[in-house]
Amino acid sequence: MPRIKFTVSYDGTDFCGWQRQNHGDKPSLSATITQGLKKIFDQEISLFASGRTDAGVHALNQVCHFDTTRPIERLKGFNLSRAMKTQLPSSIVVKKAWLAPDDFHSTISPDKKTYRYLILNAPQPSVFLTRYADWVYHPLNLDFLNECSKFVVGNQDFKSFQSVGTEVPHTVREVFDAKWEWRRPNIAQFTITGSGFLKQMVRNIVGTQLLLERKHLPATIMKEILEAKDRKVAGPPAVPQGLYLMRVYYPLDLDNRCLEL
Amino acid sequence: MPRIKFTVSYDGTDFCGWQRQNHGDKPSLSATITQGLKKIFDQEISLFASGRTDAGVHALNQVCHFDTTRPIERLKGFNLSRAMKTQLPSSIVVKKAWLAPDDFHSTISPDKKTYRYLILNAPQPSVFLTRYADWVYHPLNLDFLNECSKFVVGNQDFKSFQSVGTEVPHTVREVFDAKWEWRRPNIAQFTITGSGFLKQMVRNIVGTQLLLERKHLPATIMKEILEAKDRKVAGPPAVPQGLYLMRVYYPLDLDNRCLEL
Predict the structure, then answer these.
(1) Among B81, B91, B128, whose Cβ lies nearest the Cβ of A130?
(2) Which of A57, A80, B11, B224 has its CA 20 to 30 A from that of B75?
(3) pTM of the entire structure?
(4) Is the pLDDT of residue B22 over 70?
(5) Which residues contact B60 (CB under 8 A, 6 or more apart)?
(6) Within an 8 Å CB–CB cutoff, is residue A184 touching chain B?
(7) DSSP state of A251
(8) CATH code of the domain made up of B3-109
(9) CA A219 to CA A231: how far, in whole Å?
(10) Where in chain A is the domain with CATH 3.30.70.660?
(11) Start-end ranges of CATH 3.30.70.580 in chain A?
(12) A13 touches B at CB < 8 Å
């Protein structure tokens, strides 16, 4: 069966997250997109994504795949993005689609991912950013936050930054890069790239760094928290609306065998 | 009674407009803000604004005023912005407040207003801008749109750009400035400043200009439409979510007699 890979962008505000949660009555992104694909392809759909984003978290380029019973000749030149426009709310946009090789798997194949976190740093909140950024009113010390971020980079155990109740056995991940910068004079952005991320790991890292910054504690506490391998010693997660899944990287070999539709 | 002037910013998406409309079940901005003021001041409130914005239209600095029974001594240093934060949804933020002279009236006193209109000009829509901008996918010709805008500037009858069903007798207004420019490489912005605006006048002007641009019609048609003084010859209004009330200007003499709280 032909395998289709596609990228999708979404505003996570009005969804309960990628996957349905037990609580809440908002739809899941996964169910909403699957529903649209079912209508278009007139078949059952098993949809996979690079990972699950939490309720309120956004994506610029989430990567997904599914297999279709539609023969390959009827897929060439098929505009999935346009077809899905009629099926999806305006908060979800399919950006690009490819015919992917059988050994491509959106969840298993990634070798790295980039997330971004945005904070409005201004005396007053903005009505246009409440859905899209955290808000901190005291002037943020990005130099200090970058001091904290240095300890996050490397191949190490991130158990302290894994949210309770969702433990996975292997908590070692590699963070290649983690950096704060001013996106605009009053918007701070944190960009982090790693081999993979534990549940709420980015939000827990950001939340902990913000706590240290606000309380004027030494940046080296980040190191101590990592070494403790204990969620209880880290700070609370930063709010979900500031977080964006920016990009998922796959091995070049797999990318080269994907054919743009 | 002391008169309080304040500026307020709002995301108009989830409101039926400034004033309650007959249709729809969304709350009005006016009712939501009045409700908050009632709670804080524990009195009936007559709230006035510089003008009414339509459903879906945003404001960066709408100007309002009301009179309070609270004595002036208990208002000095009173932080209206902070007090209202507990009463309002995150889509409405009171920015600043002043003690205004008795002859200040937010609706009657303005001598000019600035509106802005945003358009995402890109092959695909953005999930983060559907609430905040119109979307045009073909590359916009801003030079042409600026040609059209020239005809709008001046002291003239804007009857052709007044929405039907809401006629006012005097349809002459002065537009001081109207200009298109690239806000970012893929976001076009139209900024218009005038002595006052008729119902949906900015959206009708933008919608008509976009129609002429899309259909490759001559810019001079703008002049003909103005001269016709007939709403039926103009184009449809541009969508409300692209429009922002940016600033309301009052005579310097009044501004100088307002005391910041």
Answers:
(1) B91
(2) B11
(3) 0.91
(4) no
(5) B9, B244, B245, B246, B247
(6) no
(7) -
(8) 3.30.70.580
(9) 18
(10) 112-246
(11) 3-109
(12) no
